[in-house]
Amino acid sequence: MGKGKSDDAKKVKRKGNTKMQLKRNIGYFDGVSFIIGSIVGAGIFVSPTGVLKHSLLNVGVALVIWTASGLVSLMGSLCYAELGTALPFSGGEYSHIKRGLGSLPAFMFIWTSVFTKPASNAARALLFAEYATQPFYGICPAPEVLKKCLALAVLWSLGILNGRSVKMAAWVQTVFTLLKMMALSVIAVSGIVLLVGGRKETLARFEDMFSSEMPNVSQIAEAFFQGLYAYGGWWSLNYMAEEMKNPSRNIPLTVMTAVPAVIVFYLLVNISYLTVLTPKEIVSSVAVAVTWADRVIPSVAWIIPLSVAVSIFGALNSSMFTLGRLSYAGSQAGHLPVLISMLSVHTCTPAPAMIFSTTIASIFIIPSDLLMLTNYFGFSAWLMIGLTCASLIVLRYREPNLHRPYKVFLPVPFMMVAMSFFLVLAPIIWSPNLQYVYAFLFMLGSFIVYLPFVHFKMHFAFLDKITCHLQLLLEVSPADGSAESKHE
What keywords are annotated for this sequence in UniProt (predicted)? Predict the structure, then answer.
């Protein structure tokens, strides 16, 4: 969308003889921090009730579903590990769909993501503001204006941080991931200690955990939805593949460390909740971890709301980092304005991409009602996962000689494709809603933009002047050829 460049743009001087491309600054531990940070948000602290509720308070079924949801997430992340090592480009699913299925499905993905992912970031920022301000207001609700101002401040602080320094963003991510895992460890270890020296009624809850009423197929499926939602974010690593040190080794290793670690922590934390609280108490609690803390560590129960805020902050940082890379990759392919794929001449970071994605997220914060619209786009995430795994299968047959440092067992992507399309269709069939039609029409609306601006390359000359002025203002320069173009 607008690839013309003015000669005036060359006025922006590069720092020394710096080669303008993303730097490989992200190591193994940074990658593990980003994946864990993306997956573990507020959900496990606040509302791990959905799985138990739809399992009809059957403890055994609930724990099996938590495990199965984690294993499905691990299968998906192994598929992504193959794509990330074979095609180590920024952009995650977008780059893989573009290579495997073509430009149009990739454009549909970025068209939808430019709407849904910033909205998700806006929702996280507002939730952070809720938890950060509530201790100062006690039982009274915090003013909406204050929460929105704080949410905007957090969004732009992280946007600027990610736009200026990858190393600093990775450091922040590592610190906040360690803090949230320490909080989860307190809950998990306390639960194990209480269970080992537990009362008879507590032990009986686990000895006869399958004895209560069994849920039917649709209830199990609904519980499964809730479990998979809690593991959302396992796909984040591929967005930073172009910045990973030794991606052939580190991407599979990172995935195989981070996702199983989250599965183990989720199971231990749920067992800890069930050790202290009855299933009915868990389902009726507004914030399970807070109720748990009031029972187990009442003198320092304030640690849990603080941990929730820390957890949301870390997840938001990770999400903003990946969204900036998606915008950058889309612009490099000509699917977004050319300015967005430019890099800072001082730091070689995609500063315009971060400004673009943070601005859209800010728009969602100001009138919060817009966030309600995004509830009906949940199916689109699994549609894109299905298309990405389908791309893997297509590339296996179409490009058999493509260098693949890591290869997943081929039935796994077939299973992921089947599961993805089930997860797309099930909510629409079981609870049909007109809003799903609107969401689907919005996705199809991408064709209206794609045909003139991408396929026929319609271009307006005045955009070149705007791009040039913004380039000089932001001190950014076009990247020296994408890693993807070199690979092809």
Answer: Cell membrane, Disulfide bond, Membrane, Transmembrane, Transmembrane helix, Transport
